[in-house]
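Saturday, quiet lab. Running sequence design on the structure tokens for the scaffold JK sent over.
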């Protein structure tokens, strides 16, 4: 079996990767082209233009929130203590 990319002719995007012997009667769906990709590491989402496959852009990495400084934490603590003090009944 050989790996083939099923390429959508409208947007030149690989929609599926199939294993096919290349000889058993089979036709690609209308509007699609089948391209031999054996050993190329092509996958769904790649584009195919002028005989060249291009990988899709890598997903954006999520950035972790910045770790607060001790001064920022102390300021938050002071603000919370002030709010608690304002809510505490005076005797």
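Result came back. Writing it out in full:
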């Amino acid at each position: 079996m050989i790996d083939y990319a099923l390429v959508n002719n409208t947007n030149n995007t690989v929609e599926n990767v199939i294993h096919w012997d290349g000889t058993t009667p089979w036709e690609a769906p209308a509007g699609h082209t089948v391209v031999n990709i054996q050993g190329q590491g092509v996958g769904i989402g790649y584009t195919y233009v002028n005989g060249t496959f291009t990988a899709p852009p890598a997903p954006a990495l999520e950035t972790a929130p910045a770790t607060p400084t001790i001064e920022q934490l102390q300021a938050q603590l002071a603000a919370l203590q002030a709010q608690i003090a304002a809510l505490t009944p005076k005797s």
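Notes for JK: DSSP finds one helix and five strands in the chain. The mean pLDDT is 92. Ask whether to fix the surface positions before the next round.
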